[in-house]
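Quarterly update from the structural biology core.
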Amino acid sequence: MNAFTDVDRSGRGPELLHYLDDAHRGLAAPKGVMRAGLDVPAGHDVLDLGCGAGHELVELERAGRCAFGADSSRLMLDASRQRLEALGLPVRLVRADAHRLPYADGAFAGCRVERLLQHVDDPAAVLAEAHRVLRPGGSLAVLEPDWASLALASWNGPRTRRGPAA
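Predicted structure, tokenized:
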């Protein structure tokens, strides 16, 4: 089991939060493309499903959208709350299982799902739930890694191909 599957019980909360801070910076370009592709006008509601530490909630709010965050982790929601409050931004968070969201059908103009599907039991059910909470004609943006094509580059090629030392 990956630590992100159950952050609160992993015992690795601070490490995972640090990772998300680094990933937010490292993934700035693809996140920007994802944000631009989320065709939701300012003033409309957008759900960040699996909001993590709240980085994209901040970006959505700064773009004039009304950001809502859902995550299964209390630790991640606490980090999101702190991030939003520190910037004086609205806090709209709920602790929820992505397979069963506590929102009405058609509640959102947009929904974003980033690096969540790899950590859930039934990705298709999560996408169906995201679709359920979207208004007709709503916008869904999804970003997931393709681990099968992951490549590492290093000055020490033989070591990189071999893996960690025994």
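The first strand starts at residue 45 and ends at 49.
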